[in-house]
Automatic annotation (TrEMBL):
Record keywords, A-Z: ATP-binding, Nucleotide-binding, Transport
The keyword ATP-binding is assigned to this record: yes
PROSITE patterns tied to this protein: ABC_TRANSPORTER_1, ABC_TRANSPORTER_2
InterPro entries reported in the protein's UniProt record: AAA+_ATPase (IPR003593), ABC_transporter-like_ATP-bd (IPR003439), ABC_transporter-like_CS (IPR017871), P-loop_NTPase (IPR027417)
Family of the protein in this entry: Belongs to the ABC transporter superfamily.
Coiled-coil region: none
Domain ABC transporter span(s) in chain numbering: 4-231
Domain of life the protein comes from: Bacteria
Pfam name, any one: ABC_tran
Molecular function GO labels: ATP binding; ATP hydrolysis activity
Key word Hydrolase present: no
Name this polypeptide is given: ABC-2 type transport system ATP-binding protein
């Protein structure tokens, strides 16, 4: 079952379309990494899921029910969120901030205490929030989102500005929450920050989803560069130049060189090798380049296609 589904979700500001025809699918129990460069429309999408921004077109379905004026209150009751800057009044202590959350949502004290313990902030509750580090502020914000014991947690760039240790701490927390059965949607403009924790990915570029699926599917869909080792790289380059974009890899051998060919599928690989051999350019190696997910992401969001 999907916890979140959107249907043709679109937001326009004036003539500008900032979210364009989005069909998101967030499976129950997943950690869904919502990725895209700055300005690609992640926050706007999340705000539409939380009914903070009204869609221009399309609709949002949460827990299998359409978000309408009548269902909104109930559906939002099952969602915890952290959007933009960490919340909380700086001049109040962590405990006082949590008390405000407890009262405004009419929660039990035990619920608030559990949320604070989950983010490992119990010892910091007597400090004023303005004395917290950024990581502590983020954790307090997550505790606020968790206090209502949501089924879905929506976190907009919770790792923004954190040092590597702080990022790892948030990752560990998300893994723990996912193990408890909470579905987590987390946005970031840096793949490496959420790659290790997200099992599903949605990649946004200029308001459109350019990939949605599992991490493995992302790799499978994006063919790694083909590397061809040949003892006559110039000759091989000439043979292929008209047919395909070729570059001579910097890792050329003394006795020859390596050609790098992007976006080549298996049948084309077979044809290329045949062409080279027929043209007298000996081939002594054909391989695929190992690529990192970061590389795939950069390729996709800089206009590359799947
Ligand atoms: N209220 C608004 N009025 C007009 N334009 C807006 C408004 N809110 C957002 N935008 C524009 O919509 C685009 C998408 O913004 P959004 O904040 O959703 O992107 P984002 O992917 O979350 O980026 P970032 O990581 O920088 O927050 C941006 O170009 C932004 O300037």
């Amino acid at each position: 079952m999907d916890v979140v589904r959107t249907h043709h979700l679109t937001k326009r500001y004036g003539r500008r379309t900032v979210v364009d025809d989005l069909n998101l699918r967030i499976p129950a129990g997943s950690v869904y990494g919502f990725l895209g460069p700055n300005g690609s429309g992640k926050s706007t999408t999340m705000k539409m899921l939380l009914a903070l921004v009204r869609p221009t077109e399309g609709d949002v379905e949460i827990f299998g029910r359409q978000m309408t004026r009548d269902t909104r209150r109930q559906l939002l009751g099952g969602i915890g969120s952290l959007i933009e800057a960490p919340p909380g009044y700086g001049h109040l202590t962590g405990a006082e901030n949590m008390m405000i959350v407890q009262r405004s949502l009419r929660l039990e004290r035990a619920q608030v205490e559990r949320a604070v313990a989950t983010v490992r902030m119990t010892e910091q509750m007597d400090k004023r929030v303005r004395e917290y580090s950024l990581g502590m502020k983020q954790r307090l914000g997550i505790a606020m989102a968790l206090a209502r014991e949501p089924h879905l947690l929506v976190l907009d760039e919770p790792t923004n500005g954190l040092d590597p240790a702080g990022i790892e701490e948030i990752r560990g927390l998300l893994r723990y929450l996912a193990d408890q059965g909470i579905t987590v949607m987390i946005s970031s403009h840096l793949l490496e920050e959420i790659d290790k924790v997200a099992d599903h990915l949605g990649i946004l570029s200029a308001g459109r989803v350019i990939f949605q699926g599992t991490r493995d599917q992302l790799f499978a869909a994006s063919a790694p560069d083909l590397l061809i080792d040949t003892s006559q790289p110039e000759r091989a380059g000439e043979v292929l130049r008209d047919k395909i974009s070729v570059q001579l890899d910097s890792t050329g051998h003394a006795e020859g060189g390596t050609l790098r060919l992007p976006g080549v599928d298996t049948p084309t690989t077979e044809r290329i090798v045949e062409d080279l051999v027929c043209a007298g350019a000996a081939v002594h190696g054909v391989r695929r380049d190992e690529q990192s997910l970061e590389h795939v992401f950069m390729k996709l969001t800089s206009g590359g296609q799947l």
